[in-house]
Design brief:
It contains five helices and no strands. By secondary structure, the protein is mainly α. The protein has two domains: 35 residues; 65 residues. α3 packs antiparallel against α4. The longest helix is centred in the middle third of the chain and has 28 residues. The relative contact order is 0.06.
Length: 121
């Protein structure tokens, strides 16, 4: 997924990549980039896999849905972004997805419900 996303964004970012000063990144910049790539991305995705093994799938799903919302809130609070109509729609869609994930029954619950109905008949 990351490789495909990288390839898709090359046409939009090629000029910025070519004009960047790649010869002189400081240790702080390299450390920050390493933290973002390894700590915030790779490790968090590995922990999602661990979470899917130990938690209900709905919990992992909720985490995936809430991540962009938290990023948006942090960006707005830090003054790096503004809260507009598009973000309001996105928040409504995110909470709609969380509602669908949490209100749906698992296969085990559906089978138990069908079995209980069959026993009543």
């Amino acid at each position: 997924m990351f490789t495909n996303s990288f390839i898709c964004t090359i046409p939009f970012s090629a000029s910025d990549l070519m004009s960047a000063d790649w010869g002189g990144p400081k240790a702080m910049e390299i450390g920050s980039l390493t933290f973002i790539v390894v700590g915030a991305t790779f490790v968090s995705y590995m922990l999602i896999v661990v979470g899917q093994k130990n938690l209900r799938p709905t919990v992992a799903g909720i985490y995936n849905y809430i991540q962009p919302l938290v990023a948006c809130i942090v960006a707005v609070c830090w003054g790096m972004d503004s809260f507009n109509t598009t973000k309001i729609i996105a928040v409504v869609l995110i909470f709609g997805g969380v509602y669908l994930v949490t209100s749906s029954r698992s296969r085990k619950e559906m089978e138990a419900y069908k079995q209980a109905q069959a026993e009543r008949e």
